[in-house]
Amino acid sequence: MDPLNDSAILQNEPVIRFGLFAGIFSVMAFLEACFPRRDRQISRKLRWTSNLGLILVNFLVIRLAFPLSLLWLAGDAALSGVGLFNQLDLPFWPVVVLSVILLDLAIYLQHLAFHYVPFLWRLHRMHHADLEIDVTTGLRFHPLEILLSLLLKAGLILLIGPPVLAVLMFEVILNGMAQFNHANFRLPLGIDRWLRLIVVTPDFHRVHHSVIQRETNSNFGFNLSIWDRLFRTYRPQPEAGHDDMEIGLEQFRTVSDLRLDRMLIQPFRRN
Fold first, then answer.
1. How do the residues of the chain divide into helix, strand and coil, expressed in percent and rounded to 5?
2. 117 vs 82: CA distance, rounded Å
3. Which of 45, 95, 100, 196 is found 20 to 30 A from 163 (Cα to Cα)?
4. Is the Cβ–Cβ distance between 124 and 142 less than 8 Å?
5. What is the pLDDT of residues 206-224, one digit of tens each?
6. Is 247 helix (H, G, I), strand (E, B) or coil?
7. What is a biological process (GO) this protein takes part in (predicted)?
8. Are 205 and 182 in contact (CB under 8 A)?
9. What's the rounded Cα separation, in Å, for the pair 262 and 98?
């Protein structure tokens, strides 16, 4: 492979990631305000304060636990010849695309595990306990879940040896798509019908946040929609329709459950 300038990518990673995060978040928040898909029942002041506060907590936890990013790990793996793609003489761009696809498949399988393994579900259920769904829900994950996901991705990077650029692309796409497919804006049905053939749309993913368990255990994809179709976890629409479906979990339905402190201790609370 002929890698791009990895050092330049590593040096500019924080600027690239924050710039794209802020840009996508602003666009999604604007679309939600102008073209809402569902009526808002709970003040954004409480939900957004808690959900955005969680981003700061997760950032601090990640920086303490992993001083170097996944991109640095991919760069070290390339220099050391660690990982499948670093052992093969393959064209650069096909390897980038294949790496992103494999990482996306891994996140789909991880998502399945976080639903069906009881201990992992206790961590992941905080994401589902949001009583409404919007762009900030896509950023609402418990710090312990974030750490476990980082360990999984780190292991996969050492296994397959993706280029630094591929890891950056995947991380940016994953974050951006999480904001997009959780956003509460009305995507025209004709566009949604065609777009969901390739990627996960807001209407596609919203089903996954239904209070009905069989709907919660469907539509696990974040980026590519093919995994749900391939593994038969795809559910086209919620039974009650998008306007009337109930969001969240049955055991956490009070407004106080939306506070940041209660979100952080939720995995350790009884049902």
1. 65, 5, 30
2. 31
3. 196
4. yes
5. 999 999 999 999 999 999 9
6. strand
7. lipid biosynthetic process
8. yes
9. 40
Which one, of 146, 195, 197, lies nearest residue 175 by Cα? 146
Q: Do the beta carbons of residue 134 and residue 182 sit within 8 Å? A: yes
248: left (phi over 0), alpha (psi -120 to 50) or beta: left
Contacts of 190 (CB under 8 A, 6+ apart): none
State the pLDDT at residue 4: 57
pLDDT, residue 3, reads 54
CA distance 38 to 242: 8
For 10, 11, 39, 165, 268, the CA distances from 5, given in Å and listed in that order, are: 9, 10, 47, 9, 45
Instruction: Give Cα separations from 187 to 84, 174, 198, 201, 202 (angstroms).
Output: 40, 20, 15, 8, 8
Tokens matching residue 207 = 């089903």
**DSSP 3-state of 44:** helix
Report which of 100, 84, 89 is spatially closest to residue 199, judged by C-alpha positions.
Answer: 100
Residues near 155 by beta carbon (within 8 Å), at least 6 away in sequence: none
Task: Give the residues of the chain that fall short of pLDDT 70.
Answer: 1-4, 271
Q: How many residues does the chain have?
A: 271
Cα 244 from Cα 110, distance rounded (Å): 29
pLDDT given at position 256 = 93
Indicate the average pLDDT of the chain: 94
Distance CA 24, CA 138 (A): 12
pTM for the predicted model, two decimal places:
0.93
Question: How many angstroms separate the Cα of 146 from the Cα of each of 7, 105, 113, 123?
Answer: 26, 17, 14, 10
